[in-house]
């Protein structure tokens, strides 16, 4: 992901198993809330990325807790 200086535009490179796709989006109003990179990497869940891409504050999205399957016994 790449963000413009004004934070109103992003570009996302996506691998779709057949090739690379470049997606460009500009918000009509507001700005993208950008995550901080740690060690040069930004980590987000798919739900958080979807919120960021929609122009919603992705920090409001909480990842679901992983549930372990119950063993019959």
Major sheet size, sense and barrel closure: 3 strands, antiparallel
Structural class: alpha+beta
**What is the arithmetic mean of pLDDT?**
87
Ends: how far apart? 46 Å
Order of SSEs: EEEH
What would the principal axes of the Cα set say about the shape?
extended
Gyration radius from CA atoms, angstroms: 16 Å
How many domains? The number is 1
Query: What is the count of DSSP helices, taking H or I runs of 4+ residues?
Result: 1
How many β-strands, per DSSP? 3
Helix content: 10-25%
Strand content: 15-25%
Unreliable stretches: none
Numbering strands along the chain, what is their spatial order in the largest sheet? 1-2-3
What tags apply to this protein structure?
single chain, 73 residues, alpha+beta, three-stranded antiparallel β-sheet, 1 helix, 3 strands
Folded structure, characterized:
The chain is 11% helix and 22% strand. The protein has one helix at 46-53; strands at 2-3, 9-15, 20-26. The longest helix is centred in the last third of the chain and has 8 residues, at 46-53. The protein has one domain. Strand 1 (2-3) and strand 2 form a beta hairpin. It has a 3-stranded antiparallel sheet, with no helix packed on it. The protein has 73 residues and is of the alpha+beta class. It starts with a strand and ends in a 20-residue tail after the last helix. The chain contains 1 helix and 3 strands.
